[in-house]
Amino acid sequence: MRCAAALAGLALALAAGTAGAAVFRCTDGDGRVTYQDSECAGAANGHATSIPTDFPPPNTAERTLILKREAELEQRLEARRERESREAAMRIASSPAPAAAPEPAYTEAYPLYFPVAMPRHPHHPQRGFGRSNGPRPTPYR
What is the pTM of this model? Predict the structure, then answer.
């Protein structure tokens, strides 16, 4: 099956190279439509279509004009980038240097923590906050 498809593709590729070849639309007994460069097989219905098989030559004058416009646009954009870069450099150079900010005066301050006896876990006296080696604190009531 693959071999037949490959041969059909090769035949189409070779036939596409011929100028003025017609394209035939063929319908088989199951209603499937295929397009090919040769006339349809005996049992298939088919007719020649008006699908063009050759293309007009490229419009080189229009292509040249488009490429020229793109090159001009690129030159204008590059000149604009250059000008904006120069202006930014001149703004930076002409702006006065920022005054040095006085260094902030920091005072030495330490957080103040009071030793607080934390209650132990109510069901597990060995677990909880405030574990120490000394006597147990009295619970808050």
Answer: 0.34
